[in-house]
Design a protein that fits this description.
It is built from five helices and no strands. By secondary structure, it is mainly alpha-helical. It has one domain. The protein is flat. The C terminus is likely disordered.
Length: 138
């Protein structure tokens, strides 16, 4: 039989878990928006300037030199951000949903699918099943 102290403690733990999960979701949302905007910037620069690989290499080197504590902005990752933006920018269903799943899930979807329909299916599945690599119970 449960007592009042157990119920109160259980509610407090649930509040802590919910707040933590909300914070993780907000951080994920901001990271995905950052990656989207970086991808958009690179895409526009390459489109307008016709620079190619040298621009992305220079950008990666600049970030590395000026912000050595920032990880995930090497040449390969910058191209992934560009691919992410270019893949979803014209998809009216997916664009509003991109911030709701983790970057890891985006990478898996981008690398494992060929069509918009496949990507939409897996994004919906991630949302429905709440797939995430970060939201774990205590």
């Amino acid at each position: 039989m449960r007592n009042a102290k157990y119920d109160r403690t259980h509610r407090e733990i649930k509040l802590i878990q919910e707040a933590r999960d909300n914070a993780i979701r907000k951080v994920n949302e901001e990271l995905i928006l950052l990656y989207w905007n970086v991808g958009k910037y690179i895409s526009k620069q390459l489109e307008n300037q016709k620079w190619g690989n040298s621009y992305v290499n220079e950008m990666a080197a600049f970030i590395s030199e000026n912000c050595p504590e920032v990880k995930g902005f090497n040449r390969r990752e910058l191209y992934r951000r560009k691919q992410f933006y270019e893949t979803y920018k014209d998809n009216k269903f997916v664009s509003p949903l991109v911030t709701q799943i983790s970057w890891t899930n985006h990478l898996l979807i981008l690398s494992s699918t060929k069509t918009d329909e496949e990507r939409e299916f897996y994004i919906k599945l991630c949302l429905k099943e709440k797939y995430s690599n970060t939201l774990n119970p205590c």
